[in-house]
Amino acid sequence: MAQITDALISYLQKSEGGLSRSTKDTASSYPSPYVYNGQTGWHTNKGITFKTFESSAAGAGYSVTADNFLKMPNEIWGKILKMYYWDPMYCNLYESQAIANAVVDFAWASGTGGSKKALIKYLSKKGIKVDGAVSIAKAFNNLAKKDGELQVFNDLIDERKRYFLSLNQPANEKGWLNRMENLRKEGAILLKDIVSSTGGKGLLIAAGLVVGIYLIYKK
Asked: Which residue in 50, 122, 176, 218 is a FRET match for 151, CA 20 to 30 A apart?
């Protein structure tokens, strides 16, 4: 089953960058009250908005302080990822690490509520009825077995690209689409590693069966 890996953490943090006070981001409507480098308006750090940071504090067990937000220790960042994105999407139920990564990235970028609605709509187009995060996970597991993990993963990336374009935010589109291609590359590496770790044994077994059948018919 999927889990939060160092590779996933690295991808998310690299994609998000550090502190942001960009007014193009909707998070700018709820900035932190903290001053950094003589400036105010800081609303996001490592992809976590101040609003999320503030509302998650009690449940995750940290204090809402300037240091915690402006420095965003990995311990706090990791708790928020697991408790408010990974767990609500039941990503631990996914048999595919690559697909789980794509799903949690969807939740991270669009919120758990928005991503669930989008995934329910996406699956309904394929004739699959789901009603929540658990059934979504089960549906993707079944799809991966039926159509192949790589195909399902790539289809999901393409669906997310369509979703971002549908938001009609030209100023953010380039960054969003680049992020999707980076996620596609990360998934391809992950899936290639899986094939490499199992493919050799599969080829040996197949070769053994062919030789065995040949010898039987030769006799």
From this structure: 176
State the number of CA atoms in the 13 A half-sphere of 201 facing the CB: 4
Q: Which two tokens stand for residue 34?
A: 């903290």
- Distance, in Å, from the CA atom of 49 to the CA atom of 171, rounded to the nearest integer, reads 19
Residues 6+ apart with CB under 8 A from 54: 64
- Are 88 and 119 in contact by the 8 Å Cβ rule? The answer is no
Distance, CA of 201 to CA of 219 (rounded, Å): 27
- For 57-70, the pLDDT digits (tens) are 999 999 999 999 99
State the Rg of the chain over Cα: 21
Q: For the whole model, what pTM was predicted?
A: 0.84
CA torsion 110-112-116-117 (nearest 10°) is -60
> What does the alpha-carbon distance between residue 50 and residue 35 come to, in Å, rounded to a whole number?
13
Report, as ranges of residue numbers, the positions in the chain whose pLDDT lies below 70. Answer: 193-219
The whole-angstrom separation of Cα 108 and Cα 100 is 12
Alpha carbons within 13 angstroms on the beta-carbon side of residue 111 total 8
